[in-house]
Amino acid sequence: MRVLVVEDETALRELLGRALKRQGFAVDLCADGTDGLHCATEYPVDLAIIDLGLPGTSGMEIVREARKRERTFPILVLTARSDWQDKVEALEIGADDYVTKPFRIEELMARVHALLRRSAGHAAPEVSFGPLTVNLSSQDVALGGEALDLTTFEYKVLEYFVLHPDQVVSKMELNEHLYEEDADPESNVIEVIIGRLRKKLDPDGDWAPIETLRGRGYRFRATG
Q1: Mean pLDDT of 100-110
Q2: Cis link prior to 102 (omega < 30° from 0)?
Q3: Res 84 pLDDT > 80
Q4: pLDDT per residue over 136-170, tens digit each?
Q5: What residue spans of the chain are helical by DSSP H?
Q6: Residue 208: per-residue pLDDT
């Protein structure tokens, strides 16, 4: 999953970037509103964290313009302002949640995970598909009640499928949402990861949860 962070305070921006990467997210960092607006409207973003008090284009304007252009990803706004009107305005123009500075990074990460779950239609952190259970907060995976050991990238691919069940997902889409903007993943990396996932999710060949659609990509079956 790919998260955009628009924050002009260098220390906070870098802290958020490190925290998100530790959680397995691909992260794009912007230091001002102008770059942030470009990324929010042009990049394949799964969630955005946007400071309201930005140089150049304001955080409010980024939220407003992103929604105007029908970008539907969840938006979490950061604000140092105590005025409740700012929070109300941000929510009314399209933000999904807010955190007031200073905040604990654990709280922000919990809100990020909750927003991603809700955007995919899941109220609880634990979701099940056939014999598979995935906890989107703890990132624990179980198959038939037994813990499943996945690598970081295997989990990231599985998480993207779980949040987009029964949808056709192209290899390009997976690359865009799993890798940093300047990354250059090898052309067969996605195929290798999906091949390993298939063996781990369906060792006996009874379920076949990941379909290959020739010339289109992949589809994760929500029912087993």
Answers
A1: 93
A2: yes
A3: no
A4: 988 999 998 999 999 988 999 999 999 999 999 99
A5: 10-22, 33-42, 59-68, 84-92, 105-119, 152-163, 171-178, 189-201
A6: 87
Answer whether 2-119 and 126-220 agree in fold: no
**Structure token pair of residue 32:** 């001002």
With 70 as the cut, is the pLDDT of residue 224 above it?
no
Q: Which of 3, 68, 15 is nearest to 39 (CA)?
A: 3
- Contact 173/161 with Cβ under 8 angstroms? no
Q: Is the pLDDT of residue 186 over 80?
A: no
Q: Residue 26's CB: how many other CB atoms inside 10 A?
A: 21
Looking at the domain that runs over 126-220, which CATH code has it been given? 1.10.10.10
* Strands 141-143, 132-135: pairing kind: antiparallel
- For residue 218 the two structure tokens come to 């992949």
Domain 2-119 carries which CATH code? 3.40.50.2300
The amino acid present at 83, given as its one-letter code, is: D
Give the residue extent of every domain in the chain: 2-119, 126-220
Q: What is the mean pLDDT of residues 121-129?
A: 86
Phi, psi of 17, rounded to the nearest 5 degrees: -60, -45
- Parallel/antiparallel/unpaired status of strands 26-30 and 2-6: parallel
